[in-house]
Write a structure and sequence with these properties.
The chain has about 475 residues and is α/β, with parallel strands linked by helices. The protein is built from 16 helices and 16 strands. Helix 3 crosses helix 4, helix 5 packs parallel to helix 12 and helix 6 packs parallel to helix 7. The radius of gyration is 23 Å and the shape is globular. It binds pyridoxal-5'-phosphate.
Length: about 475
């Protein structure tokens, strides 16, 4: 069978060649046939908190369990507020339960909770009719990119204008879902650079450079992606940065895709998450905005449930209708995930039976993430050969820059690998640690990085950074002469 060449071209580094090799080594370790110095694989490649030992939040799982198996509610083992919430969601399915499709945009009761959550967060009105519940943020992002990009013959008032190369501006470095999805849609990736030396900040001058270079080479730029807090950079944008971006997008008539899945993951003093929605409202901007959120990150870490949403702001009715039509082609997102989304947006309140436990569990997770971010930042800054100018502000990752000897770069070329992919592969072979090469995210020319998550248990961070430092020193030494 001939495979779609775009599928062949698209890459998703977070689960790329290094991870495939890690799985082979894991099998080897299980068979007991390994002579390696390590006995387990440490997966630091993906922001998948439960896979690295984070416990689910009890309240969320109790309501989901009651929705999946309503007879549990008669067993007298669930807190009263859990039963109330489960009944509310089940009533919201019209009595069909979680085994039935829902309406295309998702359960009305959940969309109302999502809208109320955003209103509390931003102090700005949110319309539940402009929210679509999806199978994780990835699904929402894919749908919106599909809505925007095409490489077909373009029409002008019904008259053919010929083929047009369309593109989307994405940050460099970026989360590879974007580059992958743009390639799949036949579009052009238009990078704008975040400046590592300035806490990965973005300037108006850089946005203009990127836009003008792309348009100068014949690309019609249609949209701009911002990831805040950043993956892989961990940077948290200030309100004034966001204002600058919104003004730029409005002037250049670009749709904004605001990826805000890490909005609860801000760890450092003086930094605060501000939503694009709030800034768009404050500036009374007419910029079209799609913003994304997810149950996978934050404090729940419910990646496997596959739940998220998109809110459309300033998007004309006819365009939104097309997004609904596109969404209808996959009927509805998974119903249990929709309920998880409602629970994320509408947690127990003070006075509810589950409040204390919920508060304690989520605070513990937050404090632990914060400690791990601080510790990993300190350690990364102290490793000889690593450069890590700004501590992790948010999200779940560290993205250090590494110095590689010229001979290591030559060796990588011989092996037909990017130098940092070679480095990550060797790191894996020697230590069992799985990281993602910086080249998978995009990086400034002749710089090399890798991304690790901050998610290994706190007790493992010392060992992780010791192994990284030890590997870096010994491995780079062999290429020094
Ligand atoms: C920036 C960013 N956006 C979206 C996603 C995907 O989230 P979801 O699990 O909701 O599809 C991730 C996952 O790591 C991410 O880092």
């Amino acid at each position: 069978m001939e495979v779609n060449p775009r599928v062949k071209k698209a890459e998703y580094a977070v689960r790329g060649r290094v991870v495939a090799r890690a799985q082979e080594i894991e099998e080897e370790l299980k068979r007991g046939s390994s002579t390696r110095k390590f006995d387990k694989i440490i997966y630091c490649n993906i922001g998948n908190p439960h896979a690295l030992g984070q416990k689910p939040v009890t309240f969320i799982r109790q309501v989901l369990a009651a929705c999946v198996c309503p007879s549990l509610m008669d067993a007298g083992i669930l807190p009263t507020d859990v039963v109330v919430r489960a009944k509310e969601y089940l009533a919201g399915t019209g009595g069909s339960g979680v085994g039935a499709y829902t309406e295309t945009a998702g359960l009305a009761v959940v969309r109302r909770q999502v809208a109320e959550f955003m209103e509390r967060r931003d102090g700005v009105k949110a319309d539940a009719k402009r929210i679509i519940l999806t199978n994780g943020a990835s699904d929402a992002i894919r749908r919106v990119i599909q809505l925007i990009l095409h490489d077909d013959v373009s029409m002008d008032g019904g008259v053919e204008r010929g083929h047009e190369r369309q593109g989307i501006m994405i940050p460099c470095p970026q989360y590879p879902l974007y580059s992958c999805q743009i390639v799949l849609s036949g579009g052009s990736i238009v990078y704008y650079e975040s400046d590592e030396a300035r806490e990965w900040g973005v300037t108006r001058a850089e946005l203009e450079r990127s836009f003008l270079e792309a348009t100068g080479s014949g690309v019609v730029v249609k949209a701009l992606v911002v990831i805040n807090p950043g993956n892989p950079t961990g940077a948290v944008l200030s309100e004034s940065d966001i204002e600058e971006i919104v003004r730029f997008a409005e002037e250049r008539k670009l749709v904004i895709l605001a990826d805000e899945v890490y909005q609860e993951n801000v760890y450092v003093e003086g930094k605060k998450f501000e939503s694009f929605k709030k800034v768009v409202a404050k500036l009374q901007s007419k910029a079209l905005l799609f913003s994304f959120h997810s149950t996978s990150k934050g404090l729940l870490g419910e990646c496997g449930i596959r739940a998220g949403y998109v809110e459309a702001v300033n998007v004309p009715d006819d365009v939104f209708k097309e997004l609904i039509k596109l969404s209808a082609s996959q009927l509805s997102s998974n119903t249990l995930g929709q309920i998880a989304c409602g629970l994320m947006c509408s947690p127990p309140r003070q006075g509810d039976t589950s409040f204390d436990l919920y508060h304690r569990e989520t605070q513990d997770i937050f404090e632990s993430l914060k400690r791990r971010a601080a510790k990993l930042s300190r350690k990364m800054q102290s490793i000889h050969g690593f450069s890590f100018p700004s501590p992790i502000q948010g999200a779940m990752y560290a993205f250090p820059s590494i110095k590689l000897p010229a001979k290591a770069v030559e060796e990588a070329e011989k092996r037909k690998m990017a130098p940092d992919e070679f480095y990550c592969m060797e790191l894996l072979e020697n230590t069992g640690i799985v990281c993602v090469p910086g080249s998978g995210f995009g990086q400034r020319k002749d710089t090399y990085h890798f991304r690790t998550t901050i998610l290994p248990p706190e007790s493992d961070i010392d060992n992780l950074t010791y192994l990284l430092a030890d590997f870096h020193t010994n491995w780079t030494q062999q290429f020094q002469h």
